[in-house]
Amino acid sequence: MNTAQQLNAQFGIDGQLGFREHDSGLVIAEIGNAQATASLCLQGAHLMAWQPRSQTVPVLWLSRDAKLAAGKSIRGGVPVCWPWFGAHASEPGFASGETSAVPRFPAHGYARTVPWQVVESGTEPDGATRLTLRLIVSEKTRAQWPHSCTLDLTVIVGERLRMELSTENTGESDFAVSEALHAYFRIGDIGAVHVAGLAGCDYWDKVGGSTLKKQDDIIRFAGETDRVYINTATECVIEDDVLKRRIHVAKSGSLSTVVWTPWTAKADRMGDLGQPDGWREMLCVESANAIENTVRVAAGTGHTLIVEYRAESA
Fold first, then answer.
1. How far apart are CA 279 and CA 268, in angstroms?
2. Domain limits, the chain
């Protein structure tokens, strides 16, 4: 692994991109340009913060109880879920709570808790900052994912945020991946937001058992919500009456959208959402490929999930 000093020498951009070592020993990329600021932890290629200069409040939410530690996921920002979303296929009971055993495979895959390396940085023609990272393959990752492939994440930070998650199958046999860019958004209050764009879509309701339902209209929140909307590439909009803004989530290469809020009881059990009420200021709208939208990647080909986020005053 390169040190922050080595990364600054090779990939740093004066006035835009620098690297520093956190007290935990993890390396953080700090981005600041004329359009926006952002920070990204190289472990997990985990984007922790993004705030356009036009916004007085960050667009991404990071728990005030979030901890940075080797091998641990970070609560908030945009975790990378890959190469499976939810419980591993061999352990479905962990998704439904049917077992109390310790899972052999971590929920949402291992990509968010292992080291990545920087492979490219640059400045876009409009002044946005580009950073590309690649997941580091090790004996530990091979034990959980024995397929030959590369996984890259490109983040372009400007007035808009663009994220591109690219899987390349470098082996001789096909494989299937489920995945998500698990974005946590900063909102004014969960009771005063709604999500538009998914009316008419089918979804798996994961609260109280997995049942297939259809969305009638906009999504409002009055309790725990965990839904996987399927067969949809539509743009979603978070309408926030408290912060007086709209957050747009536009995507390609993704046919699932996950909408999640834990509500009081689950937030208390999780314990790292900024107690006692930090969960009220966040909402997850995740761009994914999950359940029946799992992606088969043929040998010698690739797949890219792309999401673009933008915020505007309402």
1. 10
2. 4-313
Average pLDDT over the chain reads 94
CATH architecture of 4-313: Distorted Sandwich (2.70)
- Whole-angstrom distance, CA of residue 230 vs CA of residue 56: 34
173-223 pLDDT, tens digit each: 999 999 999 999 999 999 999 999 999 999 999 998 889 999 999 999 999
The pLDDT, as a whole number, for residue 110 is 96
**189: nearest Cα among 222, 218, 211:** 222
Of 295, 306, 287, 281, nearest to 57 by C-alpha is: 281
Residue 271 sits at φ, ψ, to 5 deg, of 80, -5
Span between the terminal Cα atoms of the chain, in Å: 44
In this prediction, residue 96 carries a pLDDT of 41
Collapse the DSSP code of 190 into the 3-class scheme (helix H, G, I; strand E, B; otherwise coil) and give the result: helix
Which of 273, 247, 189 has its CA nearest to residue 52? 247
Partnered with residue 136 across adjacent β-strands are none
Read off the DSSP letter of residue 199.
T
DSSP state for residue 115 in the 8-state scheme: B
Its pTM stands at 0.95
- pLDDT of 101: 47
Tell me what percent of the chain is helix, strand and coil, each rounded to the nearest 5: 10, 45, 45
Residue 140 parent element (H or E)? helix 139-144
So which residues are the catalytic ones? 182, 286
Q: What is the pLDDT of residues 77-93, one digit of tens each?
A: 999 999 999 888 776 55
DSSP reduced 3-state for 32: strand
